[in-house]
Amino acid sequence: MFREPDASVLAGLCVGTSKIAVIVAERDPNSSEMVHIIGISSAQSQGIRKGLIVNLEQAEQSVRNAVKDAENIVGFRLEQAMVSFNALDVMSVITEGMVSLGRVPRPVQVDDVERVIEAAQSQLSIPPNKLPLHTIPVRYSLDGNSGIDDPMGMAGMRLDIELQTVTVPMPYVHNVVNCVEASGLEVEGLVIKPLSSALGALTDEEMRVGAISLSIGGGVTGLTFYRDGRPMKVAIIPIGGDHITSDLAHILQLPLNKAENLKKRLFSIEDGELITLGSKGQQGRTIDPNKACEVIRYRLEELFADYMAALIPERDPRIFPAGIIVSGGVAKTPGLETLLSDIFRMPVRLADPREQCQMPPGREDVSFVNALGTIRYILSKERSPYRFIDPPRLQWRPGHVRLPGPKTDPNQFRLGKRVQNMVEKVKESLKELF
Predict the structure, then answer these.
(1) How far apart (Å, rounded) are the C-alpha atoms in residues 256 and 37?
(2) Which of 329, 322, 366 is nearest to 344 (CA)?
(3) How far apart are CA 351 and CA 221, in angstroms?
(4) Strand pairing partners for 230?
């Protein structure tokens, strides 16, 4: 028998190429900013390739399996969740805006922050088939003085902003929402996986001084660059663990399922130990782990030296003194930290979600960093509404089509609130009439 869910419950759902993960947290009654993780479940992904849904029915069943397991763990039905997902063709664009506060210095108010965000948004042109999923204030300046974390209440005559907008193709968003809600779970909000991975992997200090979050999943690799406590850039590279599996299968002449098994076993073998692959009752084939690791190294070198390096504007360790923090299933690959450090000349460490929150036994490793990040994303938005500005639900609900235009509507997040308020008033009027 399931009990009724408590209002203090938070849930996150991560749609990945290799697995669907569900995390459930409960707020600490003594602190609005603290939560306790009370359950994490996962199910093997079906119908998802390179982070994208290619078979809606199979993906829906995978989500349903993961949600059901989570409900069995926590003992109540889940009604809604923050959903993290990947998408190809993700763009991260920086625009600038400025507003005058008057000829006499005065404190910055909410309306001023909204106006300067609108000014920066007006410089951005977004195709009608793209959704501005995240609008993130990167840097504020007041009267030319930069490095201001929150200008609210500070006095000045001119407010400037650098604004990051992360856009994703609308069809990807609609497919994710359709998949999750068809499984019986309401989508509370959406977050792109590189961002949620960064929130689950980086400490507050690393975000402040500067760090690179690198999440290597089954189908894609996500990157988020943090400085001064803000994400400066988000990117996705269409290479992940599946490519390593394909390389092992091709070069070592193995079936894909055995190549995947070999890849996972490499994470836990002792030095000098040989790996034997074979079905029950059949003679196994012995694999030299050094040769297998060499194949993996070549693929990772391509990922890091060719693709990742091109996304780092300046390969200067002083820009990101906290270095590179790695998460995702592939992060367990032997020798990965040394390889990254040799290529980028930066400190490298594996993410540990226990630094952010106490995790259930068996769920403390880098594979569940993204799941934890969805919870931190919810909490971050609650603490500071302007830290991450999401589009109104009407924009990402399936069936909604953004009208083409040369500019993004500068009032988009205001309009979203107005439309929602108007809909609520209409509902109340209908209740009174009928």
Answers:
(1) 35
(2) 322
(3) 15
(4) 227
Q: Cα separation of 422 and 301, whole Å?
A: 54
- Topology of domain 1-89+171-202+352-434 in CATH is Nucleotidyltransferase; domain 5 (3.30.420)
Structure tokens at 388: 């991450």
Write the pLDDT tens digit of every residue in 289-346: 888 888 988 999 999 988 998 887 665 667 899 999 999 988 888 888 999 999 999 9
How far, in Å, are 32, 78, 229, 236, 418 from residue 10 at the CA level?
A: 12, 9, 24, 27, 26
pLDDT at 139 over 60: yes
Output the CA torsion 140→143→144→145 (10° steps): -60
Tell me which CATH code domain 241-298 carries: 3.90.640
With 60 as the cut, is the pLDDT of residue 50 above it?
Answer: yes
Residue 110 burial (CB count, 10 A): 10
Of the ranges 101-105, 138-142, 201-205, 356-360, which one carries the lowest mean pLDDT score? 356-360
What is each CA distance from 178 to 53, 185, 402, in whole angstroms? 10, 10, 18
Which residues sit opposite 188 in a β-bridge? none
Q: Is the dihedral of CA 47, 51, 52, 56 positive or negative?
A: positive
Packing angle, helices 241-251 and 256-265, rounded to 10: 110
- Residue 3's pLDDT is 67
Residues 224/267, Cβ–Cβ less than 8 Å: no
Pair 333, 367: CB distance under 8 Å: no
CA nearest to 202, candidates 315, 303, 352, 330: 352
The count of C-alpha atoms lying within 13 angstroms of the C-alpha of 7, restricted to the half-sphere facing its C-beta, is 2
One-letter amino acid identity for 362? G
Is the predicted pLDDT of residue 280 greater than 80, yes or no? no
